[in-house]
Amino acid sequence: MDSELEPYLPLLPASDLSDPPTSRKQLAELIATLPAPDTADLEIEDRTVPTEPEVPVRIYRPPRAQGAIVWLHGGGFIMGELDTEHPWAALLANNSGATVISVAYRLSPEQRFPAALDDAYAVLAWTAEHAAELGIDPARIAVGGHSAGAGIAASVALRARDQQGPSIRFQLLNQAALDDRQQTWSARNFTDTPFATRNTVAQAWSHYLGSAPATPYAAPTRATDLSGLPPAYITAAEFCPNRDEDIDYAVRLLQAGVSVELHQWAGTFHGSHQIQSAEVSQLQFTELGTALRRALAE
Length: 298
Fold this sequence. Notes:
The chain has helices at 20-32, 82-96, 115-129, 131-134, 148-162, 185-189, 198-209, 243-255, 279-297; strands spanning 43-49, 55-61, 68-72, 99-103, 141-146, 170-174, 232-239, 260-269. It is of the alpha/beta class. Strand 5 (141-146), helix 5 and strand 6 (170-174) form a beta-alpha-beta unit. It starts with 19 loop residues before the first helix and ends with a helix. Residues 69-273 form the Alpha/beta hydrolase fold-3 domain. InterPro entries: AB_hydrolase_3, AB_hydrolase_fold, GDXG_lipolytic_enzyme.
């Protein structure tokens, strides 16, 4: 474990997603303890995407932004909203120079798959259709997210490819939840890691899928053909059940001819970037912003 992260472990909430309302409350309380993000140079606007049902979004516009990313929060498919994602969305906008469109997709188990995917895809389509109004180059739109949100972003990319949907320039997948089967070494063995364990990952997928069978649009690693997808930047945390599925997905994308940059962050755990004082956390978000900036500028 990174020496700057380890002292915070006793302060982290217990890893248990059996009670979604309690988990949501704990996440909100944790985020409330973080320093307020620097928004001095950002134009921030709350909008509603007119689909059925409507999807709330928060748009972060830095100066002279050309590209944009449809950004999907983490939270095990059951937690997260615009306010809890505010620190990270603002930081990503500042670090990348891209417009960040943060999405409040519907949460499980109240609204199971494909509700969150439908919401995210609707926001992508709306962003592409309203690019001129938003001041965005329609050829420079990315999708991305953290954890469950990164998994949904990967699903959006698959769906856009299969349905000849909006053009996606890039995927920014941070510690993505991609595989419901939990058959990798990290998924089987990380039973007592911070924030995410084998048990909480199983709970998250159970809330998301219910009794429905998983499809590639729910769990992207189930897709047999990864060709023709957008280039990707993929991160994994060393002590995270998702680690090996993220690495495996990156390798399979490469084998399918997709350009990929992969970074496995030593000494980190799932969501450890929330400990902002740690140097490794600062490096992680700086690199996320740099990767997005480069991808949308090329």
